[in-house]
Amino acid sequence: MTAQNELRLLPWLGPEGKPCYLSTDDRGGYMSRLADNIESEQLDTAAELLKQAAETLGDEPTSLGDIQLLAKELTEALQDVLRVATSRGDLLARSEPHDL
C-alpha cells in the first residue's frame, strides 16, 4: 500500500468534503494531467477574483451584498489555492532531495 506522503493531493474534494488523493508514478497520466489542468484553472480563477476584489473595493461605493458575494468567492478560491500549494509543495518535497 502507498504511504499517504507518496500520494498526490488532488485539486477537488470528494464525498463529504474530504480530500482526494492520487496514487501513481506517472505524472503524465490522464488523472495527473486532469489535476494539473484543474489546478491551472483554479489559479486563474483566483487571479481574476483578486482583480475583481481590487475593483469592487476601490473608490466607488459597494453594496453589502456585493461584498458578501465577493468574500464568499474569495474564500472558495483561497481554499483551492491552498490545496494547490500544498499539493505542489508535496510533489516538490518528494522530487528534490534535501540536505539536512
Helix share bin: 55-70%
Low-pLDDT stretches are none
SSE sequence, one letter per element? EEHH
What structural class do you assign from the helix and strand content? mainly alpha
Summarize the main sheet.
Answer: 2 strands, antiparallel
Radius of gyration: 17 Å
Shape field? elongated
N- to C-terminal distance: 28 Å
For the residues shown, what is the average pLDDT? 87
> Count the helices. How many?
2
Strand element count: 2
Classify the beta-strand content into a percent band: 5-15%
Give the strand order, joined by hyphens, for the main sheet: 1-2
Structure described in brief:
By secondary structure, the protein is mainly alpha-helical. It has helices at residues 30-56, 64-95, and strands spanning 8-13, 19-22. Helices cover 59% and strands 10% of the residues.
Descriptors:
100 residues, mainly alpha, two-stranded antiparallel ribbon, 2 helices
Structural write-up:
The chain is mainly alpha-helical and 100 residues long. The chain contains two helices and two strands. It has a two-stranded antiparallel sheet with strand order 1-2. Strand 1 and strand 2 form a beta hairpin. Helix 1 runs antiparallel to helix 2. The protein is elongated. The two termini are 28 Å apart. 7% of the residues are buried.
Question: In terms of topology, how is this protein built?
Answer:
Elements: E1 8-13, E2 19-22, H1 30-56, H2 64-95
